[in-house]
Amino acid sequence: MTTLSRRHDFVLIFEVTNGNPNGDPDAGNLPRLDPETNHGLVTDVSLKRKIRNYVELARTGEAGHHIYVQEGSILNEKHRQAYTALRGEGTGKKEAKLNPKDDTEARELRDWMCRNFFDVRTFGAVMSTGINCGQVKGPVQITFANSVEPVLPMEISITRMAATNEAEQKKRAEGAEESDTRTDNRTMGRKHIVPYGLYFAHGFISAKFAERTGFSEADLDLLFEALANMFEHDRSAARGEMTTRKLIAFRHDSALGNAPAHLLFDRVKIGRNVDGEFRAADDAGLGNLRPARKFSDYMISIDREGLPIGVEILELL
């Protein structure tokens, strides 16, 4: 496979409707918020998890597309696979710790992990947890996603009529004899949702770091495929409807790049759709508009004028 030779930067725009895009465990699983602006947040870790999940589904069992960070997996056992591949069967089966013999073997271990695990080759990994395969910085980095406008999370009460065990069923039956309302016999719960939010995140793909991990042109295509489709296979009662709406990439003609990423990102503007007219999201006059509740309430503008030499805009979605 051809190693990626050109730098790319991208803008990912996605929406959530009546769901919790990324709960904060330190705040009772409320949707993450910037406390000063009330703009919604989705962490880079959450987005990378969805990319990993998509690749695992789309490339199940394919060589070079295994996933290193999986729920319930033991990372050291994956490190042990690298030692077994290089040193032979039975190597280190009982050892709790293993270390490379020299710099050459350390490099071979890292390379083996990169060749076999898509997410190591893409995002990098720290693989020095006991059974040591070193660490590698990946070529793909993603920022936190921010909502275009402030969001107002809602707390929704939910109920469950079924009992979990016989004791609970008996307690409910006794309660029903003393109460005229059926609600006394339900198990109450709560869920948190964002009625609607449009989020954007920035991504960076370094061709120079791709040389170190072997991240290829085919891997880039798979990454963009995952970004476009990752929410299609992540449905749940908690997350509601989440959809990737836009994926805009800036392709450079060189490995080091032809323009600063922040200047390219500034070319993508997200504003409110006011009777077919683009209005910047920070326009003071927007205060009288009703809250956005669908993607068509927004407009996305891409400035293509005076594009730096050696930079191409790709609208992938």
Automatic annotation (TrEMBL):
Give GO terms for biological process.
maintenance of CRISPR repeat elements
Region entry Disordered: which residue ranges? 165-184
From start to end residue, where is composition biased (Basic and acidic residues)?
A: 167-184
The family database entries (InterPro entries) matched by this protein are listed as: Cas7_Csh2/Csh2, CRISPR-assoc_prot_Cas7/Csd2
UniProt protein name: CRISPR-associated protein, Csd2 family
UniProt organism field? Roseovarius azorensis
Per the UniProt record, the lineage of the source organism begins with:
Bacteria, Pseudomonadati, Pseudomonadota, Alphaproteobacteria, Rhodobacterales
